[in-house]
Amino acid sequence: MTMTTAEAGTLLSVHFAPWVLDLGLAVEAVGEDRAVLRLPWSDRLAREGGALSGQALMAAADTATVIAVSAARGGFVPMTTVQQSTSFQRAVTGSDVLIEAVLTKLGRRMAFADIALTADPSGELAARASTVYALLG
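Above: the chain sequence. Below: its structure as tokens.
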């Protein structure tokens, strides 16, 4: 059974470090194999020149993967990032970012996901990421 967006939001507030919560991420949608989070624009997350920092985007992609795995498993289980690769395609300035993590494989001990990070409302692709997670519980 897939969790609701409210349950996923609670998971976010309970299982993540305070600095991740400071990003202001909000769960927009969850499904059997995916999660969509919103990273709201903030000048605090911008680097010199006014573009959203890559570190914020990478943390958002990582977090979206945890929510997607949890939704697919029907609840949170301890897990850890094994690998993350991110390719940045365009700068994001002055707009929110939608982060969609889609599980490509969910096993008993490992999970794999592809993540698209798009500027909202333009829909322009800002970055792509792929993650591998070890499921610990």
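The longest strand covers residues 96-106.
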